[in-house]
Amino acid sequence: MKTYLYVLSIINFMWSGDLLASGRDEHSFLIVANGPFDLEVVEKYTEICETVALDGAANKLLQHGLTPQIILGDMDSISEEACSAFKQVEFIPALNQDYTDLEKGIEFCKDRGARSIIITCALGGDRIDHTLANFSILKRQYQRGISITLQTSNKITQFLQDEEVTFEAPIGGKFGLFGFPAAVGSSRGKAGAKGLEWELNNYSLRLGEQESACNIIKSSPVTISVSGEALMVRPIKL
């Protein structure tokens, strides 16, 4: 029997940019973490995704007049005002202190049949430990056939493992690929054009030794191939 990370339990691949064009999808989820609030991202995706607020993130959604479909967490940060305002919203108590609310939220979305999980408000601020832990969660929660991304208003971070991905990106945007812990990466643009300013040709990537940072998108779409495990940071235009 599967053991869930939360108390109440109830190989399509989709990039976040494509999701905006495709309309609302019951298999697409937006997880709003309780970090620095990114209103632009939240407003874009609440229209087309099932929105899961992690505990105190519900307070910020209320402040901006936005309503989640689900509030999940140990409920130690949500205000009485938000509890009252969202009394018609589904509350999922998640009390296992061995896991962060973010990881419990990802497990919940997977259990609900998620194919695309966009995580926002999970980077930045003064909690560098949270940021690093969230990168680690991307690797730990990786599952072929489910797109799990950390997103800000201008960047997407995603874990890749032995795969090739193609995406649209704004020309001139900054790109990075980091072995996590190690990978070999290659890149290519559309026919006759460079994909990146400094193309990757079986480029060795290893955490703490060598990475592709501050690269630049030269043409779109771009195709990235990874052998091994890597974190990709790419630009997006909402």
Fold and architecture overview:
With 238 residues, the chain is of the alpha/beta class. The protein folds into two domains: 16-153, 3-Layer(aba) Sandwich (Rossmann fold); 157-235, Thiamin pyrophosphokinase, thiamin-binding domain (Jelly Rolls), CATH 2.60.120. The protein contains six helices and eleven strands. Strands 1, 2, 3, 4, 5, 6, 7, 8, 9, 10 and 11 form an eleven-stranded mixed beta sheet that branches. Helix 3 (57-63) links the parallel strand 2 (50-54) and strand 3. It is elongated. 40% of the residues are buried. Residues 1-17 have low confidence and may be disordered.
What are the main properties of this structure?
238 residues; alpha/beta; Rossmann fold; Jelly Rolls; 2 domains; 11-stranded mixed beta sheet; 22% helix; disordered N terminus
Report the average pLDDT across residues.
88
The CATH architecture of the largest domain: 3-Layer(aba) Sandwich
Which term fits the overall shape?
elongated
Number of domains: 2
CATH fold call of the largest domain:
Rossmann fold
Estimate percent helicity. 10-25%
- CATH top level of the largest domain is Alpha Beta
Question: What separation lies between the terminal Cα atoms?
Answer: 41 Å
Which regions contain 5 or more consecutive residues with pLDDT less than 50?
1-17
Count of alpha and pi helical runs? 6
Extended strand count: 11
N-to-C SSE series? HEHEHEHEHEHEEEEEE
Strand content: 25-35%
Q: Label the structural class.
A: alpha/beta
What is the gyration radius calculated from CA atoms?
18 Å
**Main beta sheet:** 11 strands, mixed
Full CATH superfamily name of the largest domain: Thiamin pyrophosphokinase, catalytic domain
